[in-house]
Write a structure and sequence with these properties.
- By secondary structure, this protein is mainly α.
- The protein has 5 helices and no strands.
- Helix 2 crosses helix 5 and helix 3 runs antiparallel to helix 5.
- It is elongated.
């Protein structure tokens, strides 16, 4: 059963990768822009909400929803996004804590503020991407259109 799910996921990875990639990119760009002005947590929240909304509506356009009512689908996607946000915040704050409290602080002198923000968000979003894509395709959308 689990191997069947993996086969379906890999078989339809192309469209999922393109759609998720757009949401992923929007998420990272918004975070990188806003982090300087409003900090890690608020910029992560804004970027996650933006990316989740884009992901839901792109998937709604390209895939058939498992839930008939749009508000139920949006609610489910919001719950998935909430868990993704928690993952992102844990990773972002942990990375920042490690870099600021160890000899890795040299990374901040090597990279500009925006480059450091981009790299840290790329790492956290990559981890969150696994959760989001798996749960979205498992509960909210069919793999085939």
């Amino acid at each position: 059963m689990f191997s069947n799910e993996i086969f379906k996921f890999i078989n339809n990875f192309s469209i999922l990768f393109k759609v998720s990639g757009c949401a992923f990119l929007l998420n990272i760009l918004i975070y990188t822009f806003f982090k300087r002005y409003i900090g890690i947590n608020l910029s992560a929240i804004i970027s996650e909400i933006s990316g989740s909304i884009l992901l839901y509506f792109l998937l709604k356009f390209f895939r058939k929803a498992k839930l008939k009512k749009k508000r139920h689908g949006i609610l489910l996607q919001s719950l998935i996004a909430l868990m993704t946000l928690i993952i992102n915040l844990l990773v972002l704050n942990t990375l920042d804590l490690i870099v600021n409290n160890t000899s890795l602080i040299i990374l901040k002198s090597i990279f500009t503020y925006n480059q450091y923000s981009f790299l840290s968000k790329l790492i956290s979003s990559s981890i969150g991407f696994i959760w989001t894509s798996t749960m979205t395709m498992k509960f909210n959308f069919y793999l085939k259109k």
